[in-house]
């Protein structure tokens, strides 16, 4: 469709580049997974793993040896052949090619499906080369072809490798970025064409309207997918641009007929039907539902509905996966309060000032359409936002505040206020942590830090035999469960979804059962090493000393950490309860110290590092005194840093992993256990 465009883009990039980026060749689109009600008569092997990959941001204008300050498009600098880590440069096509080659060699035959959470075009960060819709669609089509050629063709043994791929739209996959009007539109029509191999045919009409859909990735126990399935796993791809606070073209999720409202209604119907079919669901999107004192991603009304919907359908939701933020982390959302903890528990001793008023798209007319959805506009503080699309070198500082605000939110949600007898948090702990919704936020391929991807393992108990082949129940083949018609909803849309039956056990996100996510391996590519090897090979070739290059992927991804074998996180599984426990240990990592209060605040003795200038003011500057003072200073620094390191081991690991290991230990330890200060705002 648009491959002439992508060839033009890449050719133009080559013309201005000192090195030639391999041109993408058109690839025949082979169906990856076509939904139908037909039986899966051929035995299907389940590996119990899936790939989550996000934020490629391919850039056909990337120039090797260019200046990172000019987005690696011009000038002279240190832009490597496979990309430049810790920069604001996007992904060269060479890294895209090698990433898919590595996936084909190492992952393709060992996973069941792929979750691809958006941003498949470059950023619009070069005023001399502004993006166009044609370029955005062409870059997306290139990645679609990569996905299809990797996961939709026969493998080396001759058997079909038919791995379902479920994409979602990112805020940089549209023009202009962040702004998306209600559909049907030229944009939604374009993506129906681009993603026609991923979207079930019977959902084309709903995708035309809102760019969201669902795809069944594991058949039901009767061997069917789609409406006739009894059981199985479905991935629901949400269009978070209609929830996104930065999208000024829409009106939240409370105004009937708005795209956000309609999408939430659709989600409610889909989850209700899935409950009737005994199916389980993974919810995915691009922009995560993060809301802390430092970051508010979604419109308030959309955030509240999403959290409430997630609680009401907790019996069937397996998990929530997002991208966009570039940082490796997770968020906890409290469905009991339906607002973030910094609004419920303002800082003590400070006057709580009013923030920005919620008008228009921030809540329509100021009156919620749902019971219990009272507006809290007067409580919303100004957000000092961390923007993941800024220069990542700068945003390491702003990301520090964002990550601290996450930790502060964990403290306020999970650690009771011992001074308050009426604090509802005192008795909130339940065996399964069902009041909380937990969302994974996956880091990116684009090398803001190091390129990365995640392979998640899920429980297949009861789904497969000893050889890993799916077990179909012959008694359910001819009798799929009856689908109940959805209940009529009043015109004001005020009905909250039905909760699980009181006799229902905890869902797959809360207790281990079929489809529960158990662990994940986080992979990363060391671009420093890959670029050095490439330069070395060029020198060897020029000397005639390198006869033949290795035909395997030139960029190798390696395991950064594996939660199944992790002495720091100690996650027995990926249930919400395990993450609640991890969040508590991040808040207070004082091992077996019952005398300390459970608080994130560090004492002066624990956090102070002696300043050399202060030390010199108190001593005579003689050679002997300088030596003695230097020894004392180093000893005190070592002792206090060691104490900090031991106490904050989990927190420091979280920080290190958030940045994909690209910040050194000294920078990690500077993320001390201190509360985020909102100064005069009192949030």
From TrEMBL:
<dbReference type="InterPro" id="IPR041805">
    <property type="entry name" value="ASMase/PPN1_MPP"/>
</dbReference>
<dbReference type="InterPro" id="IPR012358">
    <property type="entry name" value="EndopolyPtase_N1"/>
</dbReference>
<dbReference type="InterPro" id="IPR029052">
    <property type="entry name" value="Metallo-depent_PP-like"/>
</dbReference>
<comment type="similarity">
    <text>Belongs to the endopolyphosphatase PPN1 family.</text>
</comment>
<feature type="compositionally biased region" description="Basic residues">
    <location>
        <begin position="341"/>
        <end position="365"/>
    </location>
</feature>
<dbReference type="GO" id="GO:0000298">
    <property type="term" value="F:endopolyphosphatase activity"/>
</dbReference>
<feature type="signal peptide">
    <location>
        <begin position="1"/>
        <end position="18"/>
    </location>
</feature>
<feature type="domain" description="Calcineurin-like phosphoesterase">
    <location>
        <begin position="49"/>
        <end position="305"/>
    </location>
</feature>
<dbReference type="Pfam" id="PF00149">
    <property type="entry name" value="Metallophos"/>
</dbReference>
<keyword id="KW-0732">Signal</keyword>
<dbReference type="InterPro" id="IPR004843">
    <property type="entry name" value="Calcineurin-like_PHP"/>
</dbReference>
<dbReference type="GO" id="GO:0005774">
    <property type="term" value="C:vacuolar membrane"/>
</dbReference>
<keyword id="KW-0378">Hydrolase</keyword>
<comment type="function">
    <text>Catalyzes the hydrolysis of inorganic polyphosphate (polyP) chains of many hundreds of phosphate residues into shorter lengths.</text>
</comment>
<feature type="region of interest" description="Disordered">
    <location>
        <begin position="471"/>
        <end position="508"/>
    </location>
</feature>
<keyword id="KW-0325">Glycoprotein</keyword>
<keyword id="KW-0472">Membrane</keyword>
<dbReference type="GO" id="GO:0000324">
    <property type="term" value="C:fungal-type vacuole"/>
</dbReference>
<feature type="compositionally biased region" description="Pro residues">
    <location>
        <begin position="497"/>
        <end position="508"/>
    </location>
</feature>
<keyword id="KW-1133">Transmembrane helix</keyword>
<keyword id="KW-0812">Transmembrane</keyword>
<protein>
    <recommendedName>
        <fullName>Endopolyphosphatase</fullName>
        <ecNumber>3.6.1.10</ecNumber>
    </recommendedName>
</protein>
<dbReference type="GO" id="GO:0006798">
    <property type="term" value="P:polyphosphate catabolic process"/>
</dbReference>
<dbReference type="GO" id="GO:0004309">
    <property type="term" value="F:exopolyphosphatase activity"/>
</dbReference>
<feature type="region of interest" description="Disordered">
    <location>
        <begin position="339"/>
        <end position="373"/>
    </location>
</feature>
<keyword id="KW-0926">Vacuole</keyword>
<keyword id="KW-0735">Signal-anchor</keyword>
<dbReference type="GO" id="GO:0008081">
    <property type="term" value="F:phosphoric diester hydrolase activity"/>
</dbReference>
